[in-house]
Structure formats: structure tokens, C-alpha cells
């Protein structure tokens, strides 16, 4: 037991646990969460826009990029937050735990931040696999937790700002007036919590233990001597080695999953739930026609797409749509779960169709699917998408008749929109 506890002492006081390293890891983690927050807000408001909002339709793969970054940065948060917790772990043993309003805010904010962050990235990861083993709505909770995380992060940064400012960058090499002196350098290299009594306290940069942990190990040292050999004080993992390990971990989770979003990494896509080129007509899908309960209505011979503008309306059979001028565009299907794939779509320009019911400039649409139920059975499309020449009522995919799982007899495809808004199995378009 003595050998075990002394070994644990040595591990806790490793040189990888110091203020400078905690700030470095925290800086990377903060950037990752801010990227997730910004891209997440963009995705949210694309799906639930406020009345005054308009979004860019160029480039057509904009959402493919932003949501791919969102999911990739979220996955990178796993090794980063574990590394951050590792570097600050000894602070859990500080006594007394609360010394004033500052320490109360620090502990409360970090508790909320860590708890909310672990829940947020975990449910986000499971969402990419469309696995929901919880009783609450994913979208609502994921959105709300993002504000909890950013708010608690802001409080934590405010409380720790003096430490962050002091250790934000390594000043050596920026001139003698900015370089650390020997005392400051020793402080940077010292562990966050020093718990090593004799014979380990002679490790460079380690001070005498204090608090509950210190009393515990002084009690151990006061115990009667026994022949147990003291653990060797060989070099612990270096700071550089620790950072390399964290970097390799981040690179691994990114490279092995980001292939579902970015074609360059496709050969390394081992763990992501979607693989480019796999699915009907070589394009992945999330929801089949059977799951949407449209196998009969979509194939019905009397199907027609109805477009209305107040009292004016027009109906188009699939044959009538095929008889109209056809346009071909290359646009990606980019889903909120992070996967995406570029495809070639052919169909009728949406703005040509809405002119059939005398819709003016600035017309927006309410789009209804044949689906029986679902949160995206009825969606809205802003005027910027309706007016764009790349927005199609698509009838063909990759040169072939649209597969029923891809939305036969007709589906919507528009630039820069989430896949859940690229409505399949169209039934009705209403000018708003």
C-alpha cells in the first residue's frame, strides 16, 4: 500500500500538470467549443430562421463545410476535454475547497461547464449515429446546452483571467524584457498541486505538500518503517510527450471520422456512420420511403405536385414536369449529422414553377411532403432560395430516375441547405 500510494503521489505531481500546460490545453478546447457554438447556431437558424433572416446561397456547399466543421470540432473535444481534466485533476484535492466568492465561482462554473460539455458532445456523437437512448428531444436540449456551456466558460475565463493572461504564451524568445526569469520559469514548471514528501520531494520544481493530500502523505511517512523499497523517481511523461499524445489523439478522431464530411479524408473514414458512395444511386440516405410511409402514395399514378398562391393554383404531374425545360446542377446533400456527398441533380427550376402561379419577387414557400408524420414533413424556404437558379424540383439523380428512397417522384434540392430541408416526396408548394 505504501509503494502504491507513493507511486500515485508521483503520478499526481507529474510535470504535465502545471499552469502553463493547463492554459495551452484550455485554449485549444475553448477554440473548439466556440467553433462548435458558431456553426451550431448557423445550422439551428437555417432550420428555424427568425423572420428577418436571409442566408447566402453561394457557395452551394457552404452548409456542407460549416456542418462538417461542427461535427469534426465536436469530436475533437473528446480528447481535448480529457486532457484538460488530466492537467487540472490535482485541484480537486485543494483544501479548503472554497476560500471566497472567486473560488466559489471558479468551482461552480467549471462543474457546470464540464458536466454540460460531456453531455453535449456525447449526445452529439450519438446523434451522428441516429441513436437516441434518452427521453428528451435531442435538438432542443443540444441547443440549450450550448448556451449553458458558453456561459459557464465565460464565467470560468473571467475568474481565471489573471492566470490565463500570465501563462497565455511562452515569452522566451521574444526579447529579454519579456522573458521569464528563473523564479517564474520554476513556477511554470511546478505541478499544480505538490504532494511529494521525502524521498520524492527533491524532484525539481516540487514544493512541500499542503492541505488534505499533504496531511495524508505525511501520515504515511510517519508510519513505522518497513522494508518496502521506495518507488524509483524516474522521469515522468514530459510536457512535450503529453502534448504529442494529445495531438495524436485529436488527429486520430478527426481523420478517422471526418471522411464522411470531407472527400479528401474519405480513404480514412473508419468510424463515421456514413460512407460516401454507399446507398441508393451511390448516395447515402437517412430516411427511407418505408420509414416515411410513402411507398404507396409516392408511386400512385395520380400523383401531382400542387403549387398555390392565394386563390391561384396549378398542378403538375411527373410527365408534365419532365416536359418542362430541365436544368442540371451539382449540389451536395449535407445532413445535420455531419455526413455529406456531392451529387448531380436534374429537374425544373423552382423559380420557373412559382411563376406559373404569378408569384412575385421575394416569394417564400411552405413545402409539404407526402410523409405521414415527422418534424420536417412541412418546412419553409426563404425567398433567397426560391429565387436562386440552382434550386430545383429534382426528378433525376446522377443521370438516373430519382430512386424512391431519394424522393421519387420529385424532391427539393437547393444550395446551402441542410439535408433535412431538402424535402423528399413533394406534395404541395404554397407561396407565402
From TrEMBL:
GO terms for cellular component: membrane. Residues 299-432 form the Oxidoreductase molybdopterin-binding domain. This is Molybdopterin-binding protein. GO terms for biological process: respiratory electron transport chain. Keywords: Membrane, Transmembrane, Transmembrane helix. GO terms for molecular function: oxidoreductase activity. It holds the Pfam family Oxidored_molyb. The chain crosses the membrane at residues 21-42, 62-83, 104-129, 141-161, 242-265. PANTHER family: BLL0505 PROTEIN, PROTEIN-METHIONINE-SULFOXIDE REDUCTASE. It comes from Subtercola boreus. Coiled coil: none annotated. The keyword Transmembrane helix applies.
Amino acid at each position: 500500500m505504501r509503494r502504491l500510494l507513493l507511486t500515485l503521489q508521483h503520478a499526481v505531481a507529474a510535470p504535465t500538470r502545471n499552469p502553463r500546460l493547463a492554459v495551452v490545453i484550455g485554449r485549444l478546447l475553448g477554440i473548439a467549443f466556440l467553433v462548435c457554438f458558431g456553426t451550431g447556431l448557423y445550422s439551428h437558424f437555417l432550420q428555424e430562421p427568425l423572420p428577418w433572416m436571409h442566408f447566402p446561397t453561394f457557395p452551394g456547399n457552404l452548409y456542407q463545410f460549416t456542418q462538417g466543421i461542427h461535427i469534426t470540432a465536436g469530436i475533437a473535444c473528446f480528447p481535448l476535454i480529457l486532457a484538460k481534466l488530466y492537467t487540472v485533476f490535482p485541484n480537486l484535492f485543494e483544501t479548503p475547497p472554497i476560500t471566497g466568492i472567486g473560488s466559489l465561482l471558479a468551482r461552480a462554473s467549471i462543474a457546470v461547464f464540464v458536466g454540460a460539455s460531456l453531455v453535449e458532445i456525447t449526445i452529439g456523437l450519438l446523434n451522428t449515429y441516429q441513436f437516441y437512448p434518452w427521453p428528451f428531444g435531442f435538438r432542443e436540449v443540444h441547443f440549450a446546452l450550448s448556451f449553458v456551456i458558453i456561459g459557464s466558460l465565460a464565467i470560468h475565463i473571467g475568474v481565471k483571467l489573471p492566470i490565463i493572461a500570465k501563462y497565455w504564451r511562452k515569452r522566451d524568445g521574444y526579447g529579454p524584457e519579456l522573458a521569464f526569469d528563473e523564479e517564474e520559469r520554476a513556477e511554470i514548471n511546478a505541478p499544480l498541486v505538490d504532494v511529494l514528501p521525502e524521498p520524492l520531494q527533491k524532484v525539481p520544481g516540487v514544493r512541500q505538500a499542503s492541505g488534505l493530500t499533504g496531511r495524508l502523505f505525511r501520515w504515511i511517512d510517519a508510519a513505522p518503517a518497513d522494508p518496502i523499497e521506495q518507488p524509483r523517481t524516474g522521469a515522468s511523461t514530459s510536457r512535450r510527450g503529453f502534448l504529442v499524445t494529445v495531438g495524436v489523439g485529436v488527429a486520430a478522431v478527426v481523420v478517422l471520422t471526418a471522411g464522411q464530411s470531407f472527400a479528401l479524408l474519405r480513404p480514412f473514414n473508419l468510424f463515421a456512420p456514413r460512407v460516401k458512395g454507399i446507398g441508393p444511386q451511390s448516395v447515402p440516405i437517412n430516411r427511407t420511403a418505408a420509414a416515411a410511409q410513402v411507398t404507396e402514395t409516392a408511386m400512385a399514378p395520380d400523383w401531382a405536385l400542387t403549387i398555390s398562391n392565394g386563390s391561384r393554383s396549378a398542378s403538375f404531374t411527373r410527365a408534365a414536369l419532365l416536359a418542362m425545360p430541365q436544368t442540371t446542377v451539382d449540389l451536395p446533400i449535407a445532413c445535420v449529422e455531419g455526413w455529406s456527398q456531392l451529387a448531380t441533380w436534374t429537374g425544373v427550376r423552382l423559380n420557373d414553377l412559382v411563376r406559373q402561379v404569378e408569384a412575385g419577387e421575394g416569394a417564400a414557400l411552405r413545402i409539404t411532403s407526402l410523409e405521414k408524420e415527422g418534424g420536417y414533413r412541412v418546412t419553409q424556404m426563404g425567398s433567397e432560395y426560391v429565387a436562386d437558379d440552382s434550386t430545383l424540383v429534382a426528378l433525376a439523380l446522377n443521370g438516373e430516375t430519382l430512386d424512391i428512397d431519394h424522393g421519387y417522384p420529385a424532391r427539393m434540392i437547393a444550395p446551402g441547405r441542410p439535408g433535412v430541408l431538402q424535402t423528399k416526396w413533394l406534395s404541395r408548394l404554397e407561396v407565402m
